[in-house]
Amino acid sequence: MEPQIKNDFDNKRILITGGIGFIGSNLAHKLVDLGSHVTLIDNLIPEYGGNLFNIDGIEKKVKLNISDVRNEHSLHYLIQGQDYLFNLAGQTSHADSMREPIADLEINAKAQLSILEACRKYNPDIKIVFASTRQIYGRPDYLPVDENHPLRPVDINGIHKLAGEQYHLLYNHVYNIRTSVLRLTNTIGPRMRIKDARQTFVGVWIRRLLEGKPIEIWGGDQLRDFTFIDDAVDAFLLAASRKKAYGTVFNLGGNEVINLKKLADLLVNIHGKGECRIREFPPERKKIDIGDYYSDFSFIRNQLGWTPKMTLQDGFKCTLSFYKEHLDHYL
């Protein structure tokens, strides 16, 4: 990360929604190191990934407000005086969005509009980065997928995340509230949810591996790329602090592409033991699976100078090491 980043965030006031989730907490650790005054919003609803252990070591250096982004009144207060907002609050489970579409709508669309309205009314000078997802592309027409690819979500979650993304871009263009959007793809690393597959299938794989259970692979041929959390955090900081980013959408991605069977074998190899089993895709999940996907992230590389640094092997070594030490806090 370039030295200028320290100046951009030193002594600045930062608000992170979804602040004790996977990405939010890693951002918080980095921003504390950079000298920022960090406030975290999280509703601590168990299914959504917030985990108090994620802020272990910085819990006395941040402010934690246990609140829900659907609560407009708390947002009006919390948004005031902030220099930056990293808007990470969201419902991430594709399967849950199909079972409970109204809840997904309230969190991933309606609440996003409320957040932006609070910014427009009470802090129009704030700079915002919104965490979007590669899920909004749907099944790719071509690979790697760039930002010009058609947007055709295949599930409720993707539709609502697309709405949230478009709200942010609209408020930038119409109200001059400086926003940028990052479309994330398979972010991995310490502090991610491994209790279930609500956040990422890789988390479940890691849990089963450490518990001595076989990794279950649905399909196995699907291609994926992965972004290590430290690289993702760097992208968020660049998107927040660079004028070129405002009003713009960027793909993140990884520098290696691998199919799921080889990925499972890699995890077993790093761990030193384990077993993989191939299963057929459950019919209800097959309908919302996007097949092969990996990103073209050349736009953010050219505009902001971002490129992933962590190799796939080193990223998973780091991740497995973290959970070997702290597994009890994530079950």
Give a written overview of the molecule.
By secondary structure, this protein is of the alpha/beta class. It is built from twelve helices and 13 strands. The strands form four sheets. It has a seven-stranded parallel β-sheet with strand order 3-2-1-4-5-6-11, sandwiched between helices. The protein is globular. It starts with a helix and ends in a 5-residue tail after the last helix. The mean pLDDT is 93.
Tell me the β content: 15-25%
Number of helices: 12
- How would you describe the shape? globular
- Predict the CATH topology: Rossmann fold
The overall strand count is: 13
* Level-1 CATH class name: Alpha Beta
Helical percent range? Answer: 40-55%
Q: What is the CATH homology-level superfamily?
A: NAD(P)-binding Rossmann-like Domain
Which second-level CATH architecture applies?
3-Layer(aba) Sandwich
What spatial order of strands do you see in the largest sheet?
3-2-1-4-5-6-11
Kindly give the count of domains: 1
What is the H/E string? HEHEEHEHHEHEEHEEEHEEHEHHH
Strand count, sense and barrel status of the largest sheet are: 7 strands, parallel
What is the first-to-last residue Cα distance?
33 Å
Rg over C-alpha atoms, rounded to the nearest angstrom? 19 Å
- Weakly predicted, low-confidence segments: none
Give the overall pLDDT as a whole number.
93
Structural class comes to alpha/beta
Topology:
Layout: H1 4-9, E1 13-17, H2 22-33, E2 37-42, E3 62-66, H3 72-78, E4 84-87, H4 94-99, H5 101-122, E5 127-133, H6 156-175, E6 178-184, E7 187-188, H7 201-210, E8 215-218, E9 223-225, E10 227-228, H8 229-241, E11 248-251, E12 257-259, H9 260-271, E13 276-279, H10 283-286, H11 298-304, H12 312-326
Parallel strand pairs: 1-2, 1-4, 2-3, 4-5, 5-6, 6-11, 7-10, 8-13
Antiparallel strand pairs: 9-12
